[in-house]
């Protein structure tokens, strides 16, 4: 099995630089906010954070491709870095501390290493293929994390995204039914839902509309913590429609609950 230790260390360095940029603009009175064509907000901090990551990658991994939310794709080849400079921009621009920089390395179509850094929460999560998942303040202060053993929806804690997205997805009623079937439901939001699954604090998380940069870094952390990460139809990985992350035992139950009527 390939060793991605050096890549993971680089991802932490990229996250350190990103944290410096993003935190310097968090709650800044002169933060500039624009609206992208898809009507989602983008701040000058999003752009500057991604530029900082790309600049370091250009020097440290010049042969690797890069895909980011705010910039054009660069490079070509089997190794590709996937960047979301600020996941949770709506929180960021309102001063809510639940946001993070997502950095992942994909080889072919598999995510093999990633770091999720939430500096305003003082927490970071990371994993590499075959080496487990960890959380803590830094690479040297990490503790192993593991998904829960909950096996029934009646005992499960479910974290979800905006209700309007589910209603627009064609799975709205299925989503509502799943909420009713679960013991506890909360919209922790964005990256945090999935990191809580990896930590075993939440048992199930799902969103109907996500892009590759939203999901790549989350995927390997959940899997290395013992969980599953699939699209809404059960295909493993971050390349499909939306995402369902589970502790493992709940995967089939969640997929069945959210499956469109014409497939049931």
Automatic annotation (TrEMBL):
Q: Which Pfam families match?
A: Inositol_P
Which keywords belong to this entry?
A: Hydrolase, Magnesium, Metal-binding
- Which portions of this protein are annotated as coiled-coil regions? none
Q: Indicate whether Hydrolase appears among the record's keywords.
A: yes
What the entry lists under SUPFAM superfamilies is as follows: Carbohydrate phosphatase
Which Gene3D superfamilies does this one have? 3.40.190.80, Fructose-1,6-Bisphosphatase, subunit A, domain 1
Judging by the UniProt lineage, the source's domain of life is Bacteria
- The answer to whether UniProt assigns keyword Iron-sulfur to this entry is no
Record-linked InterPro entries:
Inositol_monoP_metal-BS, Inositol_monophosphatase-like
Protein name, as recorded: Inositol monophosphatase family protein
Q: Tell me which species this is from.
A: Luteococcus sanguinis
Lineage at the top is:
Bacteria, Bacillati, Actinomycetota, Actinomycetes, Propionibacteriales
């Amino acid at each position: 099995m390939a060793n991605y230790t050096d890549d993971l260390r680089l991802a932490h360095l990229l996250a350190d630089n990103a944290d410096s940029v993003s935190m310097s603009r968090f709650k800044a009175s002169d933060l500039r906010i624009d609206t992208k064509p898809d009507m989602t907000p983008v701040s000058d901090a999003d752009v500057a954070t991604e530029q900082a990551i790309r600049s370091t990658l250009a020097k440290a991994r010049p042969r690797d491709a890069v895909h980011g939310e705010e910039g054009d794709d660069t490079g070509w080849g089997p190794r590709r870095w996937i960047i979301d400079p600020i996941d949770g921009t709506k929180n960021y621009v309102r001063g809510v501390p639940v946001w993070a920089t997502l950095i992942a390395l994909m080889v072919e179509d598999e995510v093999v290493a990633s770091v999720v850094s939430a500096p305003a929460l003082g927490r970071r999560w990371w994993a590499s293929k075959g080496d487990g998942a960890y959380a803590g303040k830094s690479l040297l202060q990490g503790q192993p994390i593991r998904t829960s053993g909950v096996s029934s929806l009646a005992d499960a804690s479910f974290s979800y995204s905006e209700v309007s997205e589910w209603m627009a997805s064609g799975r709205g009623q299925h989503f509502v039914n799943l909420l009713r079937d679960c013991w506890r439901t909360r919209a922790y939001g964005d990256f945090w839902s999935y990191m809580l699954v990896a930590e075993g604090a939440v048992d199930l998380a799902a969103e109907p509309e996500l892009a590759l940069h939203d999901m790549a870094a989350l995927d390997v952390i959940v899997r290395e913590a013992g969980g599953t990460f699939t699209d809404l139809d059960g295909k493993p990985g971050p390349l499909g429609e939306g995402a369902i992350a589970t502790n493992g035992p709940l995967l089939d139950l969640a997929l069945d609950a959210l499956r469109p009527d014409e497939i049931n």
